[in-house]
């Protein structure tokens, strides 16, 4: 029987400036693709809880949007607030940086780190370092910045050192009963993940022309036996953006939809029938382009 004296559960925030690899790290730690990653900075806009549970431990990860101070619009100030809040609410903080880089934005986050809870410095992307010897002086330099509970170099993309990181986090998890069922990977629902996966492909497979204002809406999400029937809309501002997304002969949209569907099937463990429309925000739905991707042969 599980009692609170032999079980550990804790909230872990993953913070770091945009593009350091927070989403990749979260995905690697919980071994499922639930958080979106992209080459473009700042694709994470939501708090995503990824949950890892075993017999005696439950790790509840909070993936925060990249902290940044380059733009001051409403969305970004909200993001900065989310980072500050999530640091307050958790038991452990993972501060993610890139190997050999520590810029002004990293310094800004450093200032927000709490003194009263363990902060683990995760130095990511060590696979990019040709000469690993350069890491040692960098580690020393970092250790002088803050009293970190631990400093660990990893490669989130190559899954190097992630088991070691898990063991370190485990040692700081407070005694507590599990808060979620064992099967729960995330407390976000499937509809949300379907939108996130499609949004990731949209950013990955279209150029810089598509602004962050492009959004994805799930119009329909129906369970039909084991099949999930999903109808989604990509919403853009201008006709030329719509044309870019669709691509020549619909090729680009087809690739986006197919890749998104495959990721959805992997995550849900079942077949998906995905229909994607591209709409212009001022809403003439009649003009929508339809693309159907069959989820089964
Ligand atoms: N070489 C290498 N690239 C990585 C590694 N981890 C992440 N990346 C790449 O870095 C880019 C950003 O990764 P994300 O996981 O989206 O970064 P993020 O910090 O969540 O970014 P935001 O959502 O913008 O805050 C992607 O192109 C990843 O493939 C790593 O260990 N090595």
Q: Give the rounded overall mean pLDDT.
A: 79
Provide the helix percentage. 25-40%
- Spans of at least 5 consecutive residues whose pLDDT stays below 50 are 38-46, 66-75, 283-297
Shape: globular
The first-level CATH class name of the largest domain:
Alpha Beta
Question: Any idea what the radius of gyration is?
Answer: 20 Å
Main location: cytoplasm
Region (G1): 16-23
Protein name: GTPase Era
Binding site for GTP: 16-23, 63-67, 124-127
Characterise the protein shown here.
Helices cover 32% and strands 24% of the residues. The chain has a six-stranded mixed beta sheet with strand order 2-3-1-4-5-6, with helices on both faces. The protein has a four-stranded mixed beta sheet with strand order 7-8-9-10, covered by helices on one side. It folds into two domains: 8-172, 3-Layer(aba) Sandwich (Rossmann fold); 190-293, GMP Synthetase, Chain A, domain 3, CATH 3.30.300.20. Helix 6 (190-205) runs antiparallel to helix 8. The model is unreliable at 38-46, 66-75 and 283-297 (pLDDT under 50). The chain is globular. It has 297 residues and is α/β, with parallel strands linked by helices. Guanosine-5'-triphosphate binds at residues 16, 18-24, 37-39, 41-44, 65-66, 124-125, 127-128, 155-157.
